[in-house]
């Protein structure tokens, strides 16, 4: 008697069912694993991305360009700033002077030389270490005043040039020529006069700087007592102010008008008011009359003596 052969299809059915269930379970498990892996990678990579971004920003600001906060009104109206207000945030180019020399009209940020720091009050930092940490971070990215004592001014004269003020038209004079300074801001427009100072020959390797807000800026004229103590070494210059990046209402480039480009011969004598300039002429005219009268008397006496001898 021949026994029927067991059907292989019947035997395979439970296996296929089991394999099908296992495949679906594995697929679901893989999907869950991928989702979990994605979530973990995001939270792991996020702080890495933040650290990389901060490092790149730090390197960029240390070696290429940096954002500085304008803390005072000494450069109005070119740059806006005042104590306790939201001053302009300015991007300062640090690599320009690796290839060129600072020139007249450049608005520069520089570390204060020793004479400038004698009476300067350093930026206040909180005693709280956490707050101080964030202040330091903010200063690096231009969100807070820097801890070091830096200044922003405009270059007026460079090494080897002689600068003084003022000519008869109240203009700064460099090497005998009166400067063209359209950027000057007067606190009192009805009294546009600036303080006088004697001639100063700027040493080689230094620059003479002044604020655009000419009546509200302590610069090379007064820092360290003025004169040679007020000059700034070129090596102290951090960079050239290029762009106002914040606030949006102030977006724009920073003017670098060269005041020496269209300079004109100084008007009459330096540091003398118009009425003073007429004094020598008046004295000469008054003194001429006695001299003429005396010469006439002497001449008449000589002629009379000659006639008697004849």
From TrEMBL:
Residues 16-27 have a biased composition (Basic and acidic residues). It is found in: Cell membrane; Membrane. Residues 45-245 form the Peptidase S26 domain. Keywords: Hydrolase, Membrane, Protease, Transmembrane, Transmembrane helix. It is a single-pass type II membrane protein. Residues 1-33 are annotated as: Disordered. InterPro entries: LexA/Signal_pep-like_sf, Pept_S26A_signal_pept_1, Pept_S26A_signal_pept_1_CS, Pept_S26A_signal_pept_1_Ser-AS, Peptidase_S26. Its EC number is 3.4.21.89. The chain crosses the membrane at residues 42-64. It catalyses: Cleavage of hydrophobic, N-terminal signal or leader sequences from secreted and periplasmic proteins. It holds the Pfam family Peptidase_S26. Its main location: membrane. CDD domains: S26_SPase_I. Belongs to the peptidase S26 family. This is Signal peptidase I.
């Amino acid at each position: 008697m021949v026994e029927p052969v067991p059907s292989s299809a019947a035997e395979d059915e439970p296996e296929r069912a089991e394999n099908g269930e296992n495949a679906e379970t594995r697929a679901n498990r893989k999907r869950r694993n991928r989702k979990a892996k994605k979530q973990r990678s995001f939270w792991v990579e996020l702080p890495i991305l933040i650290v990389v971004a901060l490092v790149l920003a730090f390197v960029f600001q240390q070696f290429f360009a940096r954002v500085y906060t304008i803390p005072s009104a000494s450069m109005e109206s070119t740059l806006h700033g005042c104590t306790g207000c939201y001053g302009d945030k300015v991007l300062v180019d640090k690599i320009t002077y690796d290839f060129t020399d600072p020139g007249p009209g450049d608005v520069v940020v520089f570390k204060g030389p020793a004479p400038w720091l004698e009476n300067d009050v350093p930026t206040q930092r909180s005693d709280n270490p956490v707050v101080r940490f964030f202040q330091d971070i903010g200063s690096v990215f231009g969100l807070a005043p820097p801890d070091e004592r830096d200044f922003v001014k405009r270059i007026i004269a460079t090494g080897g040039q002689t600068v003084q003020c003022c000519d008869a038209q109240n203009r700064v004079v460099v090497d005998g020529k009166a400067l063209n300074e359209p950027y000057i801001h007067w606190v009192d427009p009805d009294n546009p006069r600036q303080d006088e100072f004697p001639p100063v020959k700027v040493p080689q390797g230094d620059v003479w700087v002044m604020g655009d807000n000419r009546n509200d800026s302590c610069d090379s004229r007064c820092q360290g007592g003025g004169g040679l103590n007020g000059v700034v070494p070129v090596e102290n210059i951090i960079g050239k102010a290029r762009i106002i990046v914040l606030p949006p209402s102030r977006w724009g480039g920073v003017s670098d008008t060269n005041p020496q480009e269209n300079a004109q011969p100084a008007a009459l004598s330096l540091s003398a008011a118009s009425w003073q300039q007429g004094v020598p002429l008046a004295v000469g005219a008054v003194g001429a009359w006695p001299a003429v009268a005396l010469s006439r008397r002497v001449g008449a006496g000589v002629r009379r003596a000659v006639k008697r001898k004849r």
